[in-house]
Design a protein that fits this description.
By secondary structure, the protein is mainly alpha-helical. It is about 60% helix and about 10% strand. The protein is built from six helices and three strands, in the order H-H-H-E-E-E-H-H-H.
């Protein structure tokens, strides 16, 4: 019984920490968007962060994301080992993504020209600036993936 109680307290503390970081990131994104025309870099950053946070995708997968990967609310991907997976994306995230113009004929976040690693580094730099603006210490793209995984585990424990 004590272990269950400790787990519940631990889950609540974890949720509070994640919620605090997310609120600061949302405020930082709003600051980045201030004065930007819809569809520009500040607006694209919002869609990028929401996809990282609510899909559990790696940054390279988000950068390389193409519109053809979606069927309705489902996003179809392959893991590093080639296993097919699908993720149901929330209506809210889909609306934000739909309001973000494509950078190329099929890609949301890059033109599809050049090395993927180069544009991933560019997005990592943007995220570092966002985390700094939000006051999130040691922030990095993988933190969103971790939060997504923790949410899945916590949803199962409730």
């Amino acid at each position: 019984m004590e272990a269950l109680s400790a787990l519940t307290i631990g889950n609540n503390v974890l949720r509070a920490r994640v919620r605090g970081s997310q609120e600061r990131l949302v405020a930082a994104i709003a600051t980045a968007q201030a004065g930007c025309t819809p569809g520009t870099r500040g607006w694209r950053l919002r869609a990028f962060v929401l996809l990282l946070r609510f899909s559990g995708m790696r940054i390279s997968n988000v950068v390389n994301l193409s519109a053809e990967r979606f069927v309705g609310k489902r996003l179809f991907l392959y893991t590093k080992t080639g296993v097919p997976v699908h993720i149901v994306i929330s209506e809210f995230v889909l609306r934000v993504l739909e309001s973000t113009p494509l950078k190329s004929e099929i890609h949301f976040f890059w033109r599809g020209v050049g090395k993927l690693e180069s544009i991933v580094r560019s997005w990592q730099k943007r995220l570092r600036r966002l985390f700094q603006l939000a006051g999130v210490v040691k922030g990095h793209a993988h933190r969103f993936r971790d939060t997504f995984a923790v949410d899945l585990l916590l949803a199962d424990s409730d």
